[in-house]
Amino acid sequence: MDTNGYSKEGLHRCILVTGGAGFIGSHTVLQLLNEGYVVHVIDNLNNASEESLRRVRRLASPQFQHNLIFSLGDLCRKEDVEKVFSLAKFDAVIHFAGFKAVGESVEKPLKYYNNNLIGTLNLFDVMTRHGCKKMVFSSSTTVYGQPKVIPCVEDFQLAPINPYGRTKFFIEEIARDLQKADPEWRIILLRYFNPIGAHPSGQIGEDPKGIPTCLMPFIQQVVVGRQPVLNVYGNDYPTKDGTAVRDYIHVVDLADGHISALQKLFTTEDIGCRAYNLGTGHGTSVLELVAAFEKVSEKKIPIKICSRRPGDATAVYANTEKAEHELGWKAKYGIEEMCRDQWNWARQNPWGYNSP
Q1: In the chain, alpha helices (H)
Q2: How far apart are CA 58 and CA 55, in angstroms?
Q3: Does residue 6 have an active-site annotation?
Q4: Is beta strand 186-192 parallel, antiparallel or unpaired with respect to 273-278?
Q5: Cα three-residue angle 311-316-318, rounded to 5 degrees
Q6: Cβ contact 18:96 at 8 Å
Q7: Measuring CA to CA, which of 62, 67, 183, 352 is 20 to 30 A from 154?
Q8: Cα Dmax for the chain
Q9: Percent helix, strand and coil across the chain, each rounded to 5?
Q10: Which of 37, 112, 144, 164 is catalytic?
Q11: What are phi and psi of 197, to 5 degrees?
Q12: Which of 206, 248, 341, 254 is nearest to 28 (CA)?
């Protein structure tokens, strides 16, 4: 620790974060800066705002604010990736960039395969040529598909049921093949469950462009008056209240998981290519999440029951023992704290980063 109480874990290490202006990316960039890392972000701002990084810089410890460098670029253009690798020698890459809406992926599969796979292949290629062979990859629980038993364990057979999930699965397979062919590679695949919440300051949070495709930002938009009603897709699932069950995780816990994964990459030579679940290990239904948000916001959320969406699973939550034992990481926050921080962000930024 230095005199200000900040860890120097990252001092003299330089990390490239793809998609670092997005929801999870921006929170992780802030944690990285406060750990002393120099952080380069590449983002095409397709579903993000550069304002998030301006706020990250302000939130970071003053001694580390200058350690954030932003490049506007798209992984699908290899010249953009080459350009950012010409700026610094990176010790590792955290790879968030990619399209992420399950429903849209069912309607526009080629859009997802083109963007998520080609961008990642370009990144792997440029990393190889620059001798940067450490990656933390932003995978997803969607690789488990409709699990036959829960909680999900990392060695389950993977069977994604939508194109978005298949892009994550294919990238995991590519990573495993790459590491097997070249053992110098160290890759950690982080399978997130459902990230919600916001930084406790209320200064950074989720701000999707257009109509949200995830539950929590839609709840938030209903509460602040941007949407008239919350669509609940399916109330006939075989669950406690008929609505789908997910493992919601605070985005700050998730960001901490990336720091733990990075430290594991730097300290474990034989890590190979290894997957870890990042969740709480507890399932929460759609209606339970709505009730929790109503409690902290003291607002009534109007809902409309709709038919199920194609590609949605009934219930998915994590077994997190592997991350606890091997990464020394465990989620700290509960549903009420997630909703509290989300409401704090929503109140201060009802129109996201474009709020007056």
Answers
A1: 23-34, 50-59, 78-85, 102-107, 109-112, 118-129, 163-181, 215-223, 251-267, 286-297, 321-322, 335-348
A2: 5
A3: no
A4: parallel
A5: 140
A6: yes
A7: 183
A8: 56
A9: 40, 15, 40
A10: 164
A11: 85, -170
A12: 254
**DSSP category for residue 204:** S
Mean pLDDT of the chain: 95
Q: Which residues pair with residue 245 across a beta bridge?
A: 285, 315
Give the C-alpha distances (Å, rounded to integers) separating 13 from 9, 10, 255: 9, 5, 18
The string of pLDDT tens digits covering residues 178-189 is 999 999 999 999
**Whether this model's pTM surpasses 0.90:** yes
Name residue, tokens 């929790």.
Answer: 292
Q: Which two tokens stand for residue 83?
A: 């350009």
What does the block give as tokens for 69?
A: 């460098």
Q: What is the pLDDT of residues 288-306, one digit of tens each?
A: 999 999 999 999 999 999 9
Cα angle 167-170-173, degrees, rounded to a multiple of 5? 150
Q: What is the bridge-based pairing of β-strands 245-246 and 284-285?
A: antiparallel
